[in-house]
Amino acid sequence: MLLTLVVFSPLAGAALLALLPREEVRGIRRAALAFALVTLALSLVMLGRFQAGVADFQMRERAAWIPQWGIEYRLGVDGVSLFLVLLTTVLTPIVVLASWGDIHRRVKEFFAFLLVLETGMLGTFVALDMFLFYVFWEVMLVPMYFLIGVWGGPGRIYAALKFVLFTMVGSLLMLVAILYCAWRVRTATGLWSFAYETWLARLALSPREQLWLFAAFALAFAIKVPLFPLHTWLPDAHVEAPTGGSVILAGVLLKMGTYGFLRFALPLFPGAVAPAAPLVITLAVAGIVYGALVATVQPDLKKLVAYSSVSHLGFVMLGLFALHPTAVAGSVYQMLNHGLSTGGLFLLVGMIYERRHTRLIADFGGLWTAVPVYAAFFMVIMLASAGLPGLNGFVGEFLILLGSFSRWPWATAVATSGVVLGALYLLWMYQRVIFGPLAHAENATLPDLSAREVTVLVPVVALCLVMGLFPAPFLTRMQPSIDLILQRLAPPPAVAAR
After folding, report:
1. Distances, alpha carbon 333 to alpha carbons 1, 55, 279, in Å
2. pTM
3. How do residues 461-481 score in pLDDT, each as one tens digit?
4. What residue spans define the domains of the chain?
5. Do the Cβ atoms of 315 and 233 come closer than 8 Å?
6. Residue 70, SS3?
């Protein structure tokens, strides 16, 4: 029952918002924040009940849904999904509070869509029925389309349509693959079943079938990551989305792709993993370098952070397909790190945009004298994204590179250049925005962060520090579930063969 409450509390909040008068803006904002905080509190109860050291799913829930087709309501959480649920429930109230003074048009609809989106994301991470997973996967698409298309910038319609079209292409192929797998289970057992664990135990596929089905799942997930060269929808979506939309998109939605690879594509089709790994590793490393190089020359702050996501998530994909326990643990950790640090960067870009109504780096400079508190928060979150030791970004990247080197030494060596390039474009961006003389008179009178904005940023900075200094409590809960997933995979080819 606890997971059901976690997943559907935001949806209940959206239903309540629909009943409130549109002119009650303050009440709408408070109600949205209250339901987001209730969901966070429930997820913390879930964390307290989670048993470290247990690899299998915990807090399972099961009920018949469409029994004639073997479709059930199945939920469960393990060490992989646990912290992704928490990441979602932490970022949502932050986004609600950050949007407090940012959204002035159709306030009720904005927060209702945001809460529906939270339900879709949470359901995706805990669904243990493949049909139910697909329903949640599609549910999140609609509110995200409206968040970009209604409250976005001048090019919002194009960006929203591009986001939907890219996602739908992959999703439809994945749906066909899901239906085929259910049919194969029926031919083997005589019964329809969409249960994930039944598929793990009873899905018998030829190598050719595994390759085609893996490709269908992988395309849907690679678009969502996004894996180079399927990333072209991301910069447009980020640039046009409102600040809250960018934070949720970078912080959580992109992780649905990497989570999908680890939870479904790898263990369900183990025979396809080794043949696919060289291609995925190559694209991941290309994305690491490409994203970093393109970010370096971006004049727009939002585009710079968007391309940094392509680079950072390339590291996650490298770690996943290295198929080494250390590298995969680093990838899961890096999913959380990226959600916090990149989400924090988008919050900071949104805050300065509210003051200057520009995101061009050339329009800033010398902000440390005008907004010193803003500059301090910016420094910590920027260094976390750059992977400074002592902050969260370092732990994930280190584990990925450490685990990947034994399996893919040359790819890891090239990927290491992405760490250097990442520090380069982030430090250069910070230097041009924060340091130097005040290049524009408008910047001299900018107000520093308000109490609300400090409240938004403090949890992000605190978590960056905690995860950087004390990674063990997180890793000890992740590792058993990661090891269980890797046990199902075929052994990777020897390095000498390459």
Report:
1. 27, 17, 23
2. 0.90
3. 999 999 999 999 999 999 999
4. 1-483
5. no
6. coil
